[in-house]
Amino acid sequence: MTSTTAASSGKRERTVTAPNGTETGPQLYVRAEVRARKGKQPAWLLAAVVVLAIACGASLAVGARAIPLETVWDALAHFDPADGNHAVVHARIPRTVLGLLAGGALGLAGAAMQGVARNPLADPGIMGVNAGAALAVVGGIYLFGITGLTGYIWFAFLGAAVAATVVYLLASTGRDGATPVKLALAGAALNAGLYSLMNVVLVSSQDTLDRFRFWQVGSVAGRDWSVILPGLPFLAAGALLVLCSGRVLNTLALGDDLARGLGQRVGLSRGIVALGVVLLCGSATALAGPIAFLGLVIPHAVRFFTGPDYRWILPFSLALAPALLLGADVVGRVALPPGEVPAGIMTAIIGAPVFVWLVRRGKGASL
């Protein structure tokens, strides 16, 4: 239940009261905020899906050979192998599908990590998960001669899981346990250490560097169905775990003590969500390389429409993160003709100023 108290400035602010009657303070405003926005989220989510559909259409139509939208639709509905335009559209389908999968996975993972860590800067890149996956892939190339993207996925899973575990164990040491600040510090420290180790391997092996550098920048180009299909079960399992954790993340946002008071098994809940994050990050990183900023920027941006309710933040992130990735990929195709700028570079170019703007607005950083 909620109550209203008078603030010192003369304004009235909402507070949330726990079931045992204990008032938890104005920082726990989830229910009041949700009521204020109730009825608007479905319409905004529909708009997000429309934006995603437009991004998919642009991904199929725009490139070195521009295809009219009516031709794109005709190629999808009535494919003619003898038509060159139809063949180009179908050649771009795996690239578009990979953008959808990788973008959705990284958006969901970023939102879930911010909820689990209760830290607005939590992100697969900042928290060391992407670095762990990248180092494991480098190790697979250097030690075992792995050359195909289908082989990267297993090493990426292993590296992501180990990195996430190490970050949590490091942050759990001490009296207060895994606080948001300790998680961020442990993640940043591990991220720097893992990338240093990776660079040591790369500078000592030119062959490993040659194989790795095209994957390292992050891209959805040059992948086909033989690369995408093996990752689908892991992406689906991770997405299911994370999408079903909206209520759990809302409870964790109240703090560990109150979450336990409400009957939440905090350690088990964090472990389940973390498993989903590892599956999503490992799969997306293996398939598309380490792509930055999606998991950081999108969850902050969608809070303008959803408030702090993770039951809405997660589906919004699932829709808008791939839209941003596909949009960045489209811009990269036409930015420097006749070549292309990889999507991982374009998301950093686009995402960095957007994140700065969100922080300066002062609204996107609150959980």
Automatic annotation (TrEMBL):
Keywords: Cell membrane, Membrane, Transmembrane, Transmembrane helix, Transport. The keyword Cell membrane applies. CDD domains: TM_ABC_iron-siderophores_like. GO terms for biological process: siderophore-iron import into cell. It is found in: Cell membrane. It is a multi-pass membrane protein. It comes from Arthrobacter cupressi. One of its GO terms (cellular component) is plasma membrane. InterPro entries: ABC_BtuC-like, ABC_transptr_permease_BtuC. The keyword rRNA processing does not apply. Belongs to the binding-protein-dependent transport system permease family. FecCD subfamily. This is Iron complex transport system permease protein. GO terms for molecular function: transmembrane transporter activity.
